[in-house]
Amino acid sequence: MKHKKRPARNTSCILLAMAFALSLTSCANEEPQQKAPVPDGEPPAFDLFSAEDYEYTVMYGSPDTWDDEKNLTVNLDNDGISEEFIITKGKKNEIILNAVVRNAEGKTIDSYNLWTTELDSLLPDELREPGSIINYAYTQISCCDIDEDGTKEVLVSVGDKRRANLTAIYEYHKDDPVPFSFIGQLPCESKVEYKGNQILWAYDALCCGNAYTVYRYDNETITEIETEAYAQ
Question: Three-state SS for 77?
Fold first, then answer.
């Protein structure tokens, strides 16, 4: 019985060796994955998020192209003490979106990175590079009172203005242990615009025609509403 089994065992080894050799040949002949080409022409001039009254800062490209950082100082809740937002990169070229909270004397109380694992997992495939974002994307931090309660919300947008845009909404409660809380996101292709009355427009075309979705933001809740009532 042992002699009968040996040939089968040797044949199995030979077949495994052949399969392994074929896999190596396949890998050697496989072309490296190509990056998505940069879209032709100049990028559209609009911002990823915009409103009649808003403040923002924006960085272009993937973090490994950033030579500096961008800062935005805003008093979110009109208490006379400004919060600061910084777009920068970490040691491994990861995105860092720092929200800095200060006391009445102007001293930093704490700093929070708004670029969380949750936000990164929501990023559309069209904007992804391994461990980063595509090199012709924009990263924008905006502050705007989109629910009209007297305190500005923080909106983090990443997009290329043509194919994909993710705009995440954060609420600010300065007395909470973690004052910035992620509420949700608005996915679209080009831009998100706030036009007042707690209504947000997420455009799926370059801001023309009827390719848009309309949302209401109220009481820390995002609700999609019928677009017919807001036809352009």
Answer: coil
